[in-house]
Structures are given as structure tokens and as C-alpha cells.
Amino acid sequence: MATTLHCLSTLHLLPRTTHRPKTLNSLKPASKAQPPKIPELPSIPNALQLLKSSSLPLALTALPFLIDPQDAAAAGGQFGILEGRSFALIHPIVMGGLFVYTLYAGYLGWQWRRVRTIQSEINELKKQVKPTPVSPDGSTVVDSSSPPSATELEIRRLTEERKELVKGSYRDKHFDAGSVLLGFGVLESVFGGLNTYLRTGKLFPGPHLYAGAGITVLWAAAAALVPAMQKGNETARNLHIVLNGLNVLLFIWQIPTGFDIVLKVFEFTKWP
């Protein structure tokens, strides 16, 4: 009996613990971890600020990937000088120079073709000249009393003309001019479309755009024939001339529509 009382008194001295039922909140599963937030891309003005420290070609190349077509239509000066009149006039000025340069490149090409064809003319004329008498000892007998024939005079004239053409180095000049025309022409064609997109937020399908695309394609096609031309392929040479002739015609046809666009640039843009 004494032992029982001692145990009860010991239990009385132990700290009491409270057993509470689990609430509904404690029964809820642990909330899942929220996915990490994806950082937002910088706005267009901030992106343009980042591009200011880079070169102009890099900025022009990156702009189409930073521009929202819906926002570009209402840019309202958001792109700064890229929307201004200065940049808009670069395309017509450069293309006007390229048109003159195209005619110059064509002249050089024609002169180089003349160097090649004039020798064929000389060879054909030589076949019409009577053979020169030869003495028994093998030396040529020249009759100084008889004047040269018209054929012989033509051969002399063509020979002198060919010598002058060879001195002009038209082959190398034509190749260099074609390379410059191809490089700057394609670059300026892309730049013209990009500039229109920056100012208006879209391109305008029409004669000017179609002719410009055709000119660019003809430049590339004519240049692609050069390896075959260097191997003496006459078909490639003739096709090269035809393509460049079409290029000049498209260029001339494009001038009036380009002039109309220049007038609109002065109407809807401001300096710079």
C-alpha cells in the first residue's frame, strides 16, 4: 500500500502534457514549391540603349528580333534617329549611286568582251588576205610598190585597238566593279526594307518592293555564273549579259516609284 501511494505521488510531480486533436490546417499537405520566375526581357528602349555601345551594323542586325510588329507601327520616335529622315534618305542616295555604278560596270564588261571578240575578227580577216610570196631561200618577198589592201588596213587597225584595250585592264576592273556592286547592292536592299519597317512597322507590297527583290536576285544569279565564265563557257557569258541587261531595265523602271517614296519620306518624317 505504501509503495502504491509513493508511485501516485511521483506521477503527480511529472509535467502534464496536453494532447490536442490535429486541426484541418495541420492535415493539409505541404504546399508545392513555386516555379522560379523567368526574368523579363528588357524593354525596347532599354535594349536600344544597350546597342548604342555596339557598331551600327550589329544594331541594325539585332533590331528585327527586338521589335514587336504591333508596337512598331506606332513607334512615334521610339527608335530615335533610325526613324528619322536622315536614315530614310540613305537608301535612295546609295541606290542612285549604284545605278550609275551598274552602267559603269556594264561598260567595263563590254570592253572586256571586246578584247576577246576582236581577236576572232582579226583571225577571220587574216584568212582573206592573199598569202605573201616566198623566195627560194625562204624569205618573204615584200612588194613595196603595191599599197596594202583594205583588209590589211583593217587588220592593222583592229590590232592597234586590241593593244589599247589590253592596256585598260578591263577584265580586272569589271570583276572588281561587279564584286562591289554585289556586296553593296545586297546590303542596301536589305537596309531599305529594314528602314521602312522601322518607320512604319510593315513593308508595302508593290512595284518598288518587287523590282528591288528582282534586282537583288539578278545580282546574285549573274555573280553565280562567274566560275563558268572563267572556264570559257560562252553560254554562261551570254546569260550573264542577259541577266545584267534585265537588271538595268528593272533599275530604270524602279526610279519613278522610288522618287514617289522619297516624297513621302519628306512628308511624314523629320530631321534628323
First-residue to last-residue Cα separation: 111 Å
What fraction, in percent, of the residue positions are helical?
55-70%
Strand content: under 5%
- Determine the mean pLDDT: 79
**H-E order:** HHHHHHHHHHH
Q: What structural category do the secondary elements indicate?
A: mainly alpha
Keywords: Membrane, Transmembrane, Transmembrane helix
Region (Disordered): 129-149
Biased composition (Polar residues): 137-149
Organism: Brassica rapa subsp. trilocularis
Kindly describe this structure.
- By secondary structure, the chain is an all-alpha fold.
- The protein has a domain at 85-113 and 169-268.
- Helices cover 70% and strands 0% of the residues.
- The chain contains 11 helices and no strands.
- The protein has helices spanning 2-13, 24-27, 44-51, 56-66, 69-72, 85-128, 150-167, 170-200, 207-224, 226-230, 234-268.
- The N and C termini lie far apart (111 Å).
